[in-house]
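Next up, sample data.

:::
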Amino acid sequence: MAHATRPRRTTTVMLAAVSLGIMALTACNGDGEKDASAPSAAASASPAGADNGSGEPSTAAPGDGDKPDGDTSGSGGSTPQASAPVADDGQDGGVGMCETADLSYKVTVASKPTSHALLTATNKDSAPCLLPANELVITIPGLDGAAEHAGPEGKNWILKSGETAYAGIMFARADTSGGKSADKVEIALTAAESPATVPINDGPVTVNDGRVTSFFGTAEDALTY
């Protein structure tokens, strides 16, 4: 009887071992399927900045993803540098003020208005200069002091090499008779400079008054006042 039961126990043990092997194999196959499905799931994820169906564009600046944290040196986020201020030193954009010796002068008696002459001042230097429009000093021999200012004030402007500015000189009043004869005038761009002596073309003239305008860009404007 004892020998009859041994084969059944052995068979039971073998069946149990086979069952455990099948379960282990099934578990391994299940894990393998999960591992195989993981890359496809990761591949199906949308890349950063891709259209997610909301219709809103990405707010990330181009190239931001390539920079480490704290790096803001990219050109897309840089702030333009402010221009350096121009110093208030009597110059305009690096152009120096015109000096009396920088210009050549000519004074010609005007046909009209009567008792007027036209002053032309030309930049004879190779570089431009800033012309002071309202500081012109004209002295007429025979008159006391400098000529008074007449007409509106002009604006300083850059006089390029070879360019000309104009001013009007009145040397006699129509309602005043007599006077002194003059054949030259003295011209300075400012009161601080030494004047240049300029002959009066078509002179001499009779002088009993002295007035001068600011510098203008045309002869017509200069002789209006």
